[in-house]
Amino acid sequence: MNTAATFTVAxxxxxxxxxxxxxxxxxxxxxxxxxxxxxxxxxxxxxxxxAKKYKGDAKAEAxxxxxxxxxxxxxxxxxxxPPNPKVSEADAKALAAWILSL
Length: 102
Ligand code: HEC
Fold this sequence. Notes:
Layout: H1 3-29, H2 47-53, H3 60-70, H4 89-100
Helix pairs in contact: 1-4, 3-4
Heme C is lined by residues 27, 30-32, 34-36, 43-45, 50, 64, 67-68, 72-77, 79-82, 84, 87, 95, 99.
Protein backbone atom coordinates (compact mmCIF):
# COMPACT_ATOMS: atom_id res chain seq x y z
CA MET A 1 0.00 0.00 0.00
CA ASN A 2 1.45 3.40 -0.87
CA THR A 3 1.61 6.25 1.60
CA ALA A 4 -1.28 8.20 0.12
CA ALA A 5 -3.59 5.19 0.37
CA THR A 6 -2.50 4.49 3.94
CA PHE A 7 -3.19 8.09 4.80
CA THR A 8 -6.68 7.98 3.24
CA VAL A 9 -7.62 4.79 5.08
CA ALA A 10 -6.37 6.22 8.37
CA UNK A 11 -8.29 9.46 7.78
CA UNK A 12 -11.50 7.56 6.97
CA UNK A 13 -11.17 5.37 10.04
CA UNK A 14 -10.59 8.45 12.17
CA UNK A 15 -13.66 10.09 10.70
CA UNK A 16 -16.02 7.17 11.37
CA UNK A 17 -14.92 6.79 14.97
CA UNK A 18 -15.30 10.55 15.48
CA UNK A 19 -18.86 10.36 14.12
CA UNK A 20 -19.67 7.46 16.43
CA UNK A 21 -18.32 9.42 19.38
CA UNK A 22 -20.28 12.52 18.37
CA UNK A 23 -23.52 10.51 18.27
CA UNK A 24 -22.84 8.87 21.60
CA UNK A 25 -22.24 12.34 23.00
CA UNK A 26 -25.56 13.46 21.48
CA UNK A 27 -27.32 10.53 23.20
CA UNK A 28 -25.69 11.51 26.47
CA UNK A 29 -26.67 15.18 26.12
CA UNK A 30 -30.29 14.29 25.34
CA UNK A 31 -30.51 11.99 28.37
CA UNK A 32 -31.03 8.85 26.27
CA UNK A 33 -28.30 6.98 28.10
CA UNK A 34 -30.17 7.10 31.41
CA UNK A 35 -32.58 4.56 29.88
CA UNK A 36 -30.47 3.00 27.12
CA UNK A 37 -27.05 1.47 26.76
CA UNK A 38 -25.41 0.24 23.58
CA UNK A 39 -24.75 -3.30 24.77
CA UNK A 40 -27.31 -3.96 27.47
CA UNK A 41 -31.03 -3.49 28.14
CA UNK A 42 -31.71 -0.92 30.88
CA UNK A 43 -35.19 0.65 30.93
CA UNK A 44 -35.25 0.65 27.13
CA UNK A 45 -33.73 -1.90 24.74
CA UNK A 46 -29.96 -2.10 24.07
CA UNK A 47 -29.16 -0.06 20.96
CA UNK A 48 -27.39 -3.10 19.48
CA UNK A 49 -30.67 -5.06 19.78
CA UNK A 50 -32.53 -2.20 18.07
CA ALA A 51 -29.99 -2.33 15.20
CA LYS A 52 -30.44 -6.12 14.95
CA LYS A 53 -34.24 -5.91 14.93
CA TYR A 54 -34.36 -3.40 12.05
CA LYS A 55 -31.48 -4.77 9.99
CA GLY A 56 -32.37 -4.51 6.28
CA ASP A 57 -35.55 -2.51 6.98
CA ALA A 58 -35.50 0.52 4.67
CA LYS A 59 -38.17 2.33 6.72
CA ALA A 60 -36.43 1.81 10.05
CA GLU A 61 -34.65 5.18 10.17
CA ALA A 62 -37.90 7.14 9.61
CA UNK A 63 -39.67 5.00 12.24
CA UNK A 64 -36.91 5.57 14.81
CA UNK A 65 -36.84 9.33 14.14
CA UNK A 66 -40.58 9.34 14.99
CA UNK A 67 -40.08 7.31 18.17
CA UNK A 68 -37.14 9.46 19.30
CA UNK A 69 -39.15 12.68 18.90
CA UNK A 70 -42.67 11.52 19.75
CA UNK A 71 -42.12 8.47 21.96
CA UNK A 72 -43.30 4.94 21.40
CA UNK A 73 -44.72 1.89 23.08
CA UNK A 74 -45.53 -1.77 22.72
CA UNK A 75 -42.57 -2.74 20.53
CA UNK A 76 -40.20 -3.94 23.25
CA UNK A 77 -42.51 -4.49 26.20
CA UNK A 78 -44.94 -2.62 28.39
CA UNK A 79 -42.74 0.31 29.35
CA UNK A 80 -43.33 3.27 27.00
CA UNK A 81 -40.58 5.50 25.65
CA PRO A 82 -41.35 9.13 26.51
CA PRO A 83 -41.40 11.81 23.77
CA ASN A 84 -38.37 14.11 23.40
CA PRO A 85 -39.74 17.36 21.95
CA LYS A 86 -36.40 19.12 22.49
CA VAL A 87 -34.52 16.82 20.13
CA SER A 88 -34.30 18.51 16.72
CA GLU A 89 -35.07 16.66 13.48
CA ALA A 90 -31.36 16.69 12.60
CA ASP A 91 -30.34 15.29 15.98
CA ALA A 92 -33.08 12.63 15.83
CA LYS A 93 -31.85 11.58 12.37
CA ALA A 94 -28.23 11.43 13.54
CA LEU A 95 -29.25 9.36 16.57
CA ALA A 96 -31.39 6.97 14.49
CA ALA A 97 -28.60 6.49 11.93
CA TRP A 98 -26.06 5.90 14.69
CA ILE A 99 -28.24 3.36 16.51
CA LEU A 100 -28.92 1.47 13.26
CA SER A 101 -25.18 1.39 12.51
CA LEU A 102 -24.31 -0.43 15.75
C1 HEC B 1 -37.35 7.24 30.39
C2 HEC B 1 -36.57 6.24 29.67
C3 HEC B 1 -36.17 6.50 28.24
C4 HEC B 1 -35.47 7.58 27.72
C5 HEC B 1 -34.99 8.84 28.46
C6 HEC B 1 -35.25 7.29 26.33
N1 HEC B 1 -35.80 6.08 25.99
FE1 HEC B 1 -35.74 5.17 24.16
N2 HEC B 1 -36.96 3.70 24.84
C7 HEC B 1 -37.39 3.55 26.16
C8 HEC B 1 -38.28 2.40 26.25
C9 HEC B 1 -38.95 1.89 27.50
C10 HEC B 1 -38.37 1.87 24.92
C11 HEC B 1 -39.21 0.68 24.44
C12 HEC B 1 -40.57 1.20 23.91
C13 HEC B 1 -41.39 0.13 23.26
O1 HEC B 1 -41.49 -0.99 23.77
O2 HEC B 1 -41.96 0.40 22.16
C14 HEC B 1 -37.51 2.71 24.08
C15 HEC B 1 -37.30 2.48 22.72
C16 HEC B 1 -36.38 3.16 21.96
C17 HEC B 1 -36.02 2.81 20.59
C18 HEC B 1 -36.60 1.67 19.77
C19 HEC B 1 -37.96 2.09 19.22
C20 HEC B 1 -38.69 1.02 18.43
O3 HEC B 1 -39.86 1.30 18.05
O4 HEC B 1 -38.16 -0.06 18.17
C21 HEC B 1 -35.08 3.74 20.19
C22 HEC B 1 -34.39 3.82 18.84
C23 HEC B 1 -34.87 4.64 21.30
N3 HEC B 1 -35.66 4.27 22.35
C24 HEC B 1 -33.99 5.70 21.27
C25 HEC B 1 -33.91 6.68 22.27
C26 HEC B 1 -33.18 7.93 22.14
C27 HEC B 1 -32.34 8.31 20.93
C28 HEC B 1 -33.36 8.61 23.30
C29 HEC B 1 -32.86 10.01 23.65
C30 HEC B 1 -33.32 11.11 22.81
C31 HEC B 1 -34.20 7.79 24.17
N4 HEC B 1 -34.51 6.65 23.50
C32 HEC B 1 -34.58 8.13 25.46
C33 HEC B 1 -37.04 4.36 27.22
C34 HEC B 1 -36.37 5.57 27.13
